Amino acid sequence: MTKRKTIAMYSTEQQEKNYLFWIINASGWLLLLLIYIVLYYSERLGETKTILGLTITYIAGFIISIPLRYFYKKVDYQKRSILKLVLIVLLGSFLASNLWLFVDMISSLPLHGKQVLESWLKPRYYVNSIYSHLWVLTLWSTLYFIIKLWKAWTLQKERTEKATALAQAAQLQMLRYQLNPHFLFNALNSVRALIDEDTRNAKKVITELSEFLRYSLISKTYSDVPLSQELEAIRHYFAIEKIRYEEKLDVAFDIDPLAEDYPVLSFLIHPLIENAIKYGMQTSSMPLKIRVKAFVENGNLKVEISNTGKWLVPSEKENTNSTGTGLENVRQRLENAFPDRHRLEVFEEEGWVHVLLEIRDGG
């Protein structure tokens, strides 16, 4: 974005803020005038001079609020304590009340003549007038800072949410870059080996790999996808590995139709599948059996990845060329997206390793 466009955008936003202020400020003073007339002058609505004088008073108050606003705009309220803000409000309201009283008096001279000057010079009238003006401007000032603080809090909240979303998107992008490069190398090597001896399977590997990579590119636009799309990418992945390992790999799916539309983070399950093949091939008797199960229970999504073999503790994985990022990435992404609404368990039972992922309904 060029500097000219940035300045133009800032100017437009500032104009919108000013426009909103004028609408709220004018509406507020008009509403206050009407309330005052209804409460104290409802029986004197026919007295044109009285109603006109009251209207002039509140028009004067509206005019005084304008320089008062510019005074408050100079105050760095976010860096001041509540006590200092209260003192600033009281001081600003008191000074503005005196100015309001003076403007009101000058404006009322054509209507009431010298009586206004004579009344204004009386201490009792001055005190009563300042008091009535002071509470109005104090209320106005308090509302002004409340609105300013609320807008600042809202803006900060939006920025925080945007920063969090960007961080999650960056984390997802990082996860894509961390997808085991051995998978791509092995797939390409398989294509190379099959080109001469099995052209049909070579073409199949290329097709499955292109579909898998296409999902990776398309899904980067979204933070979550339906489970059915995630499973479709996993099927492409399995198809490639099946050609590579042939009879050494046995895969089966058990998917509840209700689970297919459940939203999940894209590439959330893939690392679990990758681990199942990688470590299963090292610890399981052949063929390696992998079972993918997904179902909805009480509104909660449960995905279970099971493979024959045994669970390798982290110290053992260090000797297997592990990047150590797969399961940890899944944990971090679950914590960011579903805090206190997820469960990830790994356990071994009767020659099978089970990874259970649960996302609880947030409703």
Briefly, what is this?
With 363 residues, the protein is α+β, with helices and mostly antiparallel strands. It has 11 helices and 7 strands.
In the CATH hierarchy, the third-tier topology of the largest domain is known as Heat Shock Protein 90
| Mean pLDDT figure | 80
Q: What is the number of strand segments?
A: 7
What's the structural domain tally?
Answer: 2
Helix content: 55-70%
Q: What is the second-level CATH architecture of the largest domain?
A: 2-Layer Sandwich
The description of the largest β-sheet is: 5 strands, mixed
> What is the alpha-carbon Rg in Å?
36 Å
Low-confidence stretches: 1-10, 320-324
The percentage of residues in β strands lies in 5-15%
* Helix-strand category: alpha+beta
What would the principal axes of the Cα set say about the shape? rod-shaped
Tally of helical runs: 11
Distance between the first and last residues' Cα? 41 Å
CATH superfamily of the largest domain: Histidine kinase-like ATPase, C-terminal domain
- The top-level CATH class of the largest domain is Alpha Beta
Order of helices and strands: HHHHHHHEHEEHEEHHEE
Q: Which strand order spans the largest sheet, edge to edge or round the barrel?
A: 2-4-5-7-6
Give the SSE layout:
Blueprint: H1 3-40, H2 48-73, H3 82-112, H4 115-120, H5 123-178, H6 181-197, H7 199-218, E1 224-226, H8 227-245, E2 249-255, E3 263-265, H9 270-283, E4 288-297, E5 300-308, H10 314-317, H11 326-337, E6 342-349, E7 352-359
Parallel strand pairs: 2-4
Antiparallel strand pairs: 1-3, 4-5, 5-7, 6-7
